[in-house]
Design a protein that fits this description.
CATH class of the largest domain: Mainly Alpha
Shape: globular
Structural class: mainly alpha
Largest sheet: none
Oligomer: single chain
CATH architecture of the largest domain: Orthogonal Bundle
Number of domains: 2
CATH topology of the largest domain: Hypothetical Protein Yqey, Chain: A, domain1
Radius of gyration: 18 Å
Number of helices: 7
Number of strands: 0
Length: 149
Amino acid sequence: MLKEKLTADLKEAMKRHDQNVVSVLRMMLSALKNKEIEKRVEALLEDEMLQVLTTEARKRKESITSYQQGGRSDLAEIEKRELGIIKAYLPEEASEDEIRQAVKEVIAGMGASADAKAMGKVMGAVMGRFKGRADGTAVQNIVKKELGV
């Protein structure tokens, strides 16, 4: 299970005195614990844990962009390092070709037309297929292109 792997890796990083990894692993475990408290459950399901880590990764991506726009490359590098550690625990991201193929299949299956309602339905179906393996922004751009919205 993901939480046990994070805990074991945290112990190893502490033994190696790798403070960068220790802080990121603690942050991830803390985010998981906070979600458990929020949902009032003993333990999260694997999909829920992946969703929490995906959210953490997305936060880092947004921070990287903000720091780069603000001319703070030093802070952007820290966020990139953290993102790399988080990504190690996430499933491999789907390629643009995989996403495009799935979007085409969903559009054909639904007979979707170029409107906002169809876009939402297609987005939902495609994101459901990839469960944490595809970035929402990338999927949205491909759906817009394929629907001609």
